[in-house]
Amino acid sequence: MSETPQGINVSASQHVLEDTLTPSTDLVLEFQDTFQRIQSELAKVIIGHEELIQNILIAFFAGGHVLIEGVPGTGKTLLVRSLARVLNLSFNRIQFTVDLMPADVTGTRMVVDREEGRRDFVFVEGPIFSHVLLADEINRSTPKTQAALLEAMAELQVTVAGTTYQLPPPFFVLATLNPIEMEGTYPLPEAQLDRFFFKVRLTYPTHHEVRRIISSTTTTVEPDIQPVFAEAEAAEKIMAFRHLVRDVLVAPTIEEYIAALIHATLPADALYVNQTDTATVMLPKDDLVSRYVNFGSSPRGGQTLMLGAKVAALLDGRVNISYDDVDQVMQPALNHRLVLNFAAEAENIDPASIIERILQSAKKIRR
Amino acid sequence: MDWPPGTEERSALAEVEARLRGLQARFNLYTAQHRLYGIGTVFALGFALFTFLAFSLSSFWFIVAAWPLLALAGLVCFRFLRQGVADWTNLHTAARRIDLQVGLKQRLSTLTAQMLATPSTGPPASRLWTYLLHDNMDRLSLWEIKKVAPRRLPWSVLPFLAALVLAFLAASIPLLSPASEPEPFSLTNLELVSSELPERTGQLVDKRLAVPPEGFAARTLDPLPVGETLSEQADSQASSQDHAADEEGLGQELLELASLPEDLQHALRTALQGLQESQTSLDEQDAKGRRLLNDEQAQNIQSEQQAGDAGQQALGEGQAGQDAERAGPGSQQAPEQGSGLQKLKQARLDRRKAVGAFQSANPQLPGRGGQAGRGGMGAGTGTDRHLYGNEANLGSTPQTFSLSLDASFEKSQTGYEIVKDEGGGVILKSTSQLSANQALDDAIRNAQIPPEYEDIVKNLFSREAVQ
Q: Do B129 and A4 touch (CB under 8 A)?
């Protein structure tokens, strides 16, 4: 036995094993390093919100999209634009309004006069054809326009006039919601909310953070953001990282744990719930869930938990998921998937408190 | 990574698996111990409870309580066994336990799942499989068997030991209970003794007089034989005392009664009042009886001399050596034995006629603690109602008489003085005083003697007077 730099004794067979490690180890280390560099670069322009940035990056590397809820003027647009710059990806922004049409998002076919006098229909790509898209105040557009965007988010393609166009990978949508000025808005249906990987809240910065914001953004000095990828290899690298995330290993007990968490969000008397479920790992039905939840999380919520936990595990230097990884991503992954009833709204019960209750009871089934 | 894995990966996997199996065995051993101690606790507690119930409940209620308790104990044992089977640790469970115990963040359970799920010829589940193996090998020193599952007894051994102690105490109830030790002064015992005393006293006296040991009877009843020296008499008395020691058990019972406090003795006397009522009438007959005793004594002395002569003649006619030595004194005593024992036999015969053919010749002695002693065939469970002859004559008939003993039978050998009564007869008076422990001998002294023993007693006392 010998001593490693980490102070852990290793056996002779381990020394041999170290030499046989494949490049996957390097990829894991590179992922950790890239993630930290992105966070550092974003921290140059975004004061505070470290947890928010981490959740956005987790969703990004997991291949999901993020819905940001926050009041105006808290740096949502700046955050998305900075992220695109750091990743060295193409960036577009759509300001959703009531009169915004789907074609304004996806693009449309236009008649183009050729030099030889011919006229052809040419597809003009909409702003959705970018790597990073900011859908600002998505709830201000009509459901038809929202659906056009959400279809592209789910299928990574758009169909215009019978022709399907693939979106360039990686495709990442950051939509924002304005919780105030709700008049004249079209709240997203639950089915469309479900397509967002995470929903995060951009809260007001703290007193100290506000001081830093106003002092750093009101001078002539622009923050120098350095991209972490070269432009030519950015998309490829990001897709490699996304593939790495999906390679993270999961123990059967973790799968059972995630399934139990998803099942715990369902009210006991909810419609479409299989009452004869005889799973071995089940959480007791929480009274809070039964009283205030109309609809719980879909299995897509479980997929979100799994993928988000995988990214969290990689960030921790592991290639396997632990219970803590799942717990870490549960709030942003599930809080927009719980549909509460009127009683919850009347009693000011939010999904976060219900999820917190489920997490507390979930510690009992860890084994 | 390449598949199948190389030698290094295989050896690393084997190392992890070997340690995991070692811990699995240790976990299962602990589980088995835990469940066995649990079952042992149930058995020990059940034994203690059953023992306690056996001593505290009647047989009916014990049976009523026993079956539900047996069923409950069986149910608990079954549950322990089922729980033990459910807790049986496989490799997955062992890995999960180690993960939680050491804080490996599910590294080991994930590796175990991959290890057991991936067939040896199939592709790996993930290209990160080697990384996970490396990660686990880095932390192999954190979950050594001695650290994770050191050899120790499960906590369930404590309730098991406590249950064992409880069972031992329950089994010792008969030894530790105050009821197991004789307590002569308890109210229950005293009431029992006082209720049985008249009956027992009569039986004791009857035994003494009706069934004397052979040698003892000859020695004590006979006067000093002709030609016997004082030293020879001392030897004879020594052998008689050996027989007396055999009788000590009976005397001890009387001594125990005599050791009671005075107020209790008074209560006993009151209980015996029925016997004392006839005391005065019997005293008058006592003097008459003594005179008759003296007359018969004189006749016996003459018959003894005649028997001695006849014995000398028989010796001279051809009995040889040692037989002659024994026959000599025997023949000298022959007239006396012939007189006394013949009457004793006659008295036994009369008694058999009175009680029937199946009545034992020896009266039954009651046992200690109020339990009936075992009697012979036809003895019945109580004292012979006809022990003193016709029951109708007891206490009122002049045919009975009362012995006025001043000392116990053994004490009579220590010192007597012979005084002559008004009728010219000889009265034997003991010079020994009763000890305090013999105070209860009042009951014996005042006991009524059946009329068929009257002649024997008279004969006895007339001989003692001559001596």
A: no
A340: β partners: A293
**Interatomic CA distance for residues A270 and A282, integer angstroms:** 16
Q: Which of B93, B97, B126 to mutate to test the interface with A (most CBs of A within 10 A)?
A: B126
- How far is it, in rounded angstroms, from Cα B98 to Cα A228? 39
User: Which chain A residue has the Cα nearest residue B130?
Assistant: A21
| H or E element that contains B282 | helix B279-316
Reduce the secondary structure of A55-121 to three states and give it as a string. HHHHHHHHCCCEEEEECCCCCHHHHHHHHHHHHCCCEEEEECCCCCCHHHHHEEEEEEECCCCCEEE
Q: What ipTM was reported for this prediction?
A: 0.81
**Rounded to an integer, what distance in angstroms lies between the CA atom of residue A51 and that of residue A68?**
13
Structure tokens at B213: 């040991």
3-state secondary structure of B191: helix
pLDDT band at A67 (very low <50, low <70, confident <90, very high): very high
Beta-bridged to residue A339, according to DSSP, are A295
In B203-292 the beta strands, taken as DSSP E runs, fall at none
Rounded to a whole number of angstroms, the distance from the CA of B135 to the nearest CA of chain A is: 8
B129 vs A: CB within 8 A: yes
φ, ψ (nearest 5 deg) of residue A2: -135, 175
Of B102, B413, B421, which Cα lies nearest the Cα of B293? B421
Full-model pTM: 0.60
Could you tell me how many helices (H) and strands (E) chain A has, helices first? 15, 13
The answer to whether the Cβ–Cβ distance between B12 and A366 falls below 8 Å is no
Q: Determine contact, residues B288/B215, Cβ cutoff 8 Å.
A: no
Phi, psi (deg, nearest 5) at residue B182:
-65, 135
Mean pLDDT by 10 residues, chain B (467 residues): 66 89 91 89 89 84 87 89 86 90 90 78 70 88 86 88 90 70 66 77 68 47 45 52 50 55 67 53 58 62 56 44 42 45 61 49 42 41 50 50 47 57 63 58 65 75 59
Q: What is the pLDDT of residues B129-180, one digit of tens each?
A: 888 888 888 888 888 888 888 888 888 889 999 999 998 888 887 776 665 5
Angle at A289 between CA A288 and CA A294, to 5 degrees: 130
d(CA B183, CA B192): 12
Residues 63 through 82 of chain B touching chain A, CB cutoff 8 Å: none
Predicted confidence (pLDDT) per residue in A225-273, tens digit:
889 988 888 889 999 999 999 999 999 889 999 999 998 898 876 666 6
